[in-house]
Amino acid sequence: MAFARHGFEGANIRDIATEVGVTHTLIRYHFGNKSDLWKAVIDDMYARLNAAMSKDQAGGFDLRTKEGLRAWLRFYIGYCAKNPEQARIMINESMVRSERLDYMVGHIRRSHRALIPVFRHLMKDGVVPDMWLVSFFYIISTMCQMPFVLSTTIERLYGVDMTSEPAIEAHYEAVVAFMLGEPPRHQLQWPALPDWAKQAQAS
Amino acid sequence: MAFARHGFEGANIRDIATEVGVTHTLIRYHFGNKSDLWKAVIDDMYARLNAAMSKDQAGGFDLRTKEGLRAWLRFYIGYCAKNPEQARIMINESMVRSERLDYMVGHIRRSHRALIPVFRHLMKDGVVPDMWLVSFFYIISTMCQMPFVLSTTIERLYGVDMTSEPAIEAHYEAVVAFMLGEPPRHQLQWPALPDWAKQAQAS
DNA sequence: CAACATCCTTTCCAAATGGAAAGTTTTTGT
DNA sequence: ACAAAAACTTTCCATTTGGAAAGGATGTTG
Known about the structure:
Chain A is mainly α and 203 residues long. Chain A has helices spanning 2-10, 13-20, 24-31, 34-58, 66-82, 84-93, 99-124, 133-149, 151-158, 165-180, 195-202.
């Protein structure tokens, strides 16, 4: 989506319209002004996120155990990999204090409220070390999101397509190893590195 | 800087100029077109980063030990906290494939090349678990950067000023705890959470 | 001091962009 | 089938924005 790629100011209704094959005035007719369109996008985004979360959470895992945490991480990392625009939009709007940021924070707060008790449990049970909750939240979420948000950079830098299944799997294993201190159970063939990185290994 | 806040397309030379107190044509005279200005900003950004890195690395720490890693993390997190625009610009440009992204990748590659051998060492010595190098890189760097990149959101969400010393310190302790599995050595008074988050704790 | 280059301002332009207004087609309810 | 409402298009406008051009001020050098 254009808002994810160019930010609110960089995106323009006309391009969005032609992308969908309509005129820019039609978009205005249905959504109102640019801010209204943006809000509609955000609402839809969170609706889809919540739908995916609750569906898979009902279908499954108890976040308070290591096993459940692993399952949740696999789900969440997969979701981030397939919907990187969502994190991109949110990051874009975090760059400057704005009315849009406040609107977004309403959604974020609801998500976080649901996860806080779970995260506290993980600490209490010693699954993860005790730490400041805010840090824990942003460490976890950015760990899962950022490699996919930055996929174009990683592609240019390491020649790896982060949206590919092996890369997603490798990253999942890395996150689990990092969080739980457990090395990958089945030895993975990690996506190969380019020459400049391999040579750096030697030095 | 405007490029960090609004992205390349969202920023405009005229506003940048008035911010500095000159006319927009003067900026054009000195830097050329908008892309040239952007490149000059990036070059300066990396020059300052490299200066800070090499100065403090010379003054210091051996990244291959736990102690050294801790010291480096403290430095790097502090740097990220005080220069969040740097990560912001890079993230902005990662949103879409562009000539600017390629330009940036040149700088990034140099930084990464210097760190890869160090990171490999950390894994070989068992300081951190074995994992895919690309994941490790982005886990580490985003852990250190993102809370400060997203400081406006965190402020609105948790009422915490991430740029304050206690918040930086708390985050540093969290990162160390997360990476090395070591709980904070001296018990910190973590910045307080707002009511909505405390109540979530109870449930 | 005169010629020249550097630095900076003023003025202008064309394209892009958000938005308004008015008109046309399609759908819907009766 | 017909009137009203909803959906959509065309046309236009004011503002913003990157950029070009020309002129003026301020050194700088022989």
